[in-house]
User: Which sequence fits this backbone?
């Protein structure tokens, strides 16, 4: 087990920087999720930690040791790849033991570790099979086992669940979480799936265009996004943004814009008279009662709840309705917006106010 | 999926293919039946006629009695020489090509782009251009006219193509496989021998087939570098046909020709399916 520190690193692809001056510290035993859209540089960052991608500037430290120029083999890390990357000619047992064999461990030691990893991941009955004879979920478990069989200092996961179907993904997500809790190991996990990020992470690092946007616990990142990008990227159905202006005095600020007028929570401190973008999460819009009103444009069922899209004076506003009731399209519905969890952003910079 | 053709088009296609096959098979047919005819029948002149009294005598003579220059031991000696040249030339060339291709495709070799450019040029420059310098170079170390000499020449001439084939093969495999091996702690040889070589079967097969047939069919390099003691079958065949005392033994010439081309023919017939599979295997990784 070890902590990981990236110190002002720069990564270039063909002389063009894809990541520049990025620093982050990942504590011992932490489960950090690198979250971002495809092409944001999160996998590149993971590869830099693994030593599969060169770092042009800055340092990579694992357990306090500078491994910036070190070969992947010398870093003592475990890694699970998106495509599983199981060795096709080898049985599950040989796949699990390959890393131990090339490191020249005693045979008894190898057998004991393989048996333990297989037990942990319920692979014992599959040890004699080749990867081609395994299902997708089984292959992914072998890939995880191959990383865990060595006592690596850090475990890296590159979108490990994205090739699985939804039910299997949920099941393996739970297994991974359970695994992290039991092993207490440092894990760094790359995904573009916000559900995986929110459920697995002790901390989430949201990335866009090679830049860390926000690093924080899932609750922090979800409730207090530092900018519009983070606010829009997390949350399904997504946050609604409405441009408007602030009126009134600090403490009793009101927002007006896009057909909406509402009082903000007492804690809001932005200057009166300025232009702002209001961010409203659908679960904070309560339908059925309140001083505001909107016309129902569309209702989408999520099973347990419904996403109701309202037209509020020309502005579309999404609401999450947990009550088992049906709204007719075109119907005018009264609603209220919970003022406490609202977010305000600067319209120009997109930064949280 | 093959699209269904309209009936007249299909008949036309079948006729064209049959015609093309006949065109290419006709010389083989003439060679084969001539090799089975007594000389009297050949001199009668019916080129395409089926042999009236088929005989295997020309084959026996071609194999073990016909004169190839001074010696009159048939082309058996040439067969053994060709075998002695082809086997090491293939094993060494394929092994080196696989390592070269692996290094060029997956490791950062200093000057790799430059090296690759040179290889590309090497693959397209006609071998004759290099013949004289190579004779001088090998002559200066006393390797002309020896088995190691001719094997070395074959290995050198095959390097561009072998390296290109394997480089493209390893570049077509999923990179994550190689990365997984590196994370697991494997170095250059560990990743190659442990992970990548075991899944290179199709490419090894294709490369070996190309090299065996190429070396076996070679005439020029064998003539120049092998010397009299290791003259391959192709050179012996030429000697046999050009060693004329009295009447030309067309039947023996034909039999010797078929014997010489037997190995490449068998390799192609035996491995044709595999050959195609290997060439397309990179596209269908699964």
Assistant:
């Amino acid at each position: 087990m070890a902590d990981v520190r990236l110190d002002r690193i720069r990564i270039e692809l063909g002389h063009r920087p894809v990541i520049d001056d990025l620093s982050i510290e990942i504590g011992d035993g932490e489960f950090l999720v690198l979250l971002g859209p495809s092409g944001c540089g999160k996998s590149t960052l993971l590869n830099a930690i693994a030593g599969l991608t060169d770092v042009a500037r800055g340092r990579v430290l694992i357990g306090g040791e500078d491994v910036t120029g070190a070969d992947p083999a010398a870093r003592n890390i475990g890694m699970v790849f998106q495509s599983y990357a199981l060795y096709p000619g080898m049985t599950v047992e040989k796949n699990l033991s390959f890393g131990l064999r090339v490191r020249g461990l005693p045979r008894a030691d190898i057998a004991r570790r393989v048996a333990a990893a297989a037990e942990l991941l319920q692979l014992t009955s599959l040890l004699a099979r080749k990867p081609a004879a395994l299902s997708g979920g089984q292959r992914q478990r072998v890939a995880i086992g191959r990383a865990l069989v060595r006592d690596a200092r850090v475990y890296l996961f590159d979108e490990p669940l994205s090739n699985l179907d939804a039910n299997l993904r949920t099941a393996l997500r739970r297994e991974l979480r359970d695994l992290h809790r039991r092993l207490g190991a440092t894990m760094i996990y790359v995904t573009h799936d916000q559900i995986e990020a929110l459920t697995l992470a002790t901390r989430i690092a949201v990335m866009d265009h090679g830049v860390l946007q926000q690093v924080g616990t899932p609750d922090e990142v979800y409730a207090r996004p530092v900018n519009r990008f983070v606010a829009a990227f997390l949350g399904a159905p997504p946050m609604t943004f409405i441009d408007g202006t602030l009126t009134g005095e600090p403490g009793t600020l009101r927002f007006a814009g896009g057909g909406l007028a509402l009082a903000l929570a007492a804690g809001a401190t932005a200057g009166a008279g300025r232009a702002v973008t209001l961010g409203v999460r659908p679960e904070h819009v309560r339908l059925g009662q309140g001083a505001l009103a909107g016309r129902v444009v569309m209702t989408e069922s999520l099973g347990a709840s419904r996403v109701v899209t309202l037209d509020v004076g020309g502005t579309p506003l999404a609401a999450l309705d947990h009550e088992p009731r049906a709204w007719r399209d075109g119907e005018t519905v009264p609603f209220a917006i919970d003022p406490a969890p609202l977010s305000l952003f600067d319209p120009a910079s997109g930064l949280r106010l | 999926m093959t699209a269904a053709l309209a009936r007249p088009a299909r008949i036309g296609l079948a006729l064209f293919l049959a015609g093309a096959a006949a065109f290419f098979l006709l010389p083989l047919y003439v060679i084969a039946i001539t090799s089975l005819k007594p000389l009297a029948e050949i001199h009668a002149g019916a080129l395409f006629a089926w042999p009236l009294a088929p005989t295997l005598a020309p084959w026996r003579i071609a194999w073990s009695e016909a004169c190839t220059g001074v010696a009159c031991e048939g082309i058996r000696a040439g067969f053994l020489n060709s075998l002695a040249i082809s086997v090491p030339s293939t094993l060494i060339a394929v092994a080196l090509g696989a390592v070269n291709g692996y290094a060029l495709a997956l490791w950062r070799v200093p000057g790799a782009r430059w090296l690759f450019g040179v290889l590309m040029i090497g693959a397209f420059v006609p071998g004759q251009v290099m013949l004289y310098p190579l004779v001088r170079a090998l002559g200066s170390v006393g390797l002309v006219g020896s088995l190691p000499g001719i094997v070395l020449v074959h290995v050198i001439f095959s390097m561009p193509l072998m390296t290109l084939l394997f480089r493209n093969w390893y570049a077509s495999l999923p990179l994550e496989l190689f990365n997984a091996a590196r994370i697991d702690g494997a170095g250059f040889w560990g990743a190659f021998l442990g992970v990548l070589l075991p899944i290179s079967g199709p490419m090894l097969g294709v490369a070996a087939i190309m090299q065996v047939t190429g070396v076996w069919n070679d005439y020029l390099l064998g003539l120049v570098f092998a010397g009299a003691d290791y003259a391959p079958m192709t050179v012996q065949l030429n000697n046999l046909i050009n060693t004329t005392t009295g009447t030309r033994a067309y039947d023996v010439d034909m039999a010797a020709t078929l014997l010489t081309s037997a190995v490449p023919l068998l390799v192609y017939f035996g491995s044709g399916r595999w050959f195609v599979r290997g060439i397309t295997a990179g596209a269908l990784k699964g």
Observations:
- Residues 8 and 111 of chain A are 41 Å apart (CA to CA).
- The mean pLDDT of chain A is 91.
